[in-house]
Design a protein that fits this description.
Layout lengths: L10 H26 L4 E6 L2 E6 H23 L3 H20 L5 H29 L1
Antiparallel strand pairs: 1-2
Length: 135
């Protein structure tokens, strides 16, 4: 069924998604920078053995995802068609990265994963309306 070409109030959810991308990306980049320059490793003991997590590797992953999220948020605000698809991929990657650090930063990871779900919903369901509104 073809969708209406009229822009609805739901486009606000896409702008919300852009703001969340910008905010989460900014905080990811900051926490990534802190971890990159931290000389620490985290050691955990599980039933399977000892797990060592290099904090600087985790930091680089979060730094790169954070910077890409910020850049994509600005492209989303500009109404670029490709930004929606890139944002969807980056949000999924960000949720996975947050899931891997759930035991290290449980509250931040949970909040970020929930926000990522809202962003995914907004971009998948109403993203095309934001593209029409920008043109």
């Amino acid at each position: 069924m073809p969708r209406s070409s009229q822009v609805t109030v739901w486009v606000g959810w896409v702008w919300f998604a852009g703001v969340v991308l910008l905010t989460v990306g900014f905080f990811n980049a900051i926490s990534g920078l802190v971890a990159v320059f931290s000389p620490n490793s985290l050691v955990g003991v599980t039933d399977e053995g000892i797990v060592v997590l290099d904090v600087s590797t985790w930091g680089w992953i979060h730094l790169v995802i954070g910077v890409l999220l910020v850049l994509t948020a600005f492209a989303l605000f500009a109404g670029k068609g490709w930004a929606r698809m890139v944002a969807i991929v980056l949000v999924v990657l960000n949720a996975l990265a947050q899931f891997t650090t759930l035991q290290v930063t449980p509250w931040w990871s949970l909040v970020t994963i929930v926000l990522d779900i809202f962003v995914l919903w907004a971009l998948v369901v109403h993203g095309d309306e934001a593209e029409r509104a920008a043109h």
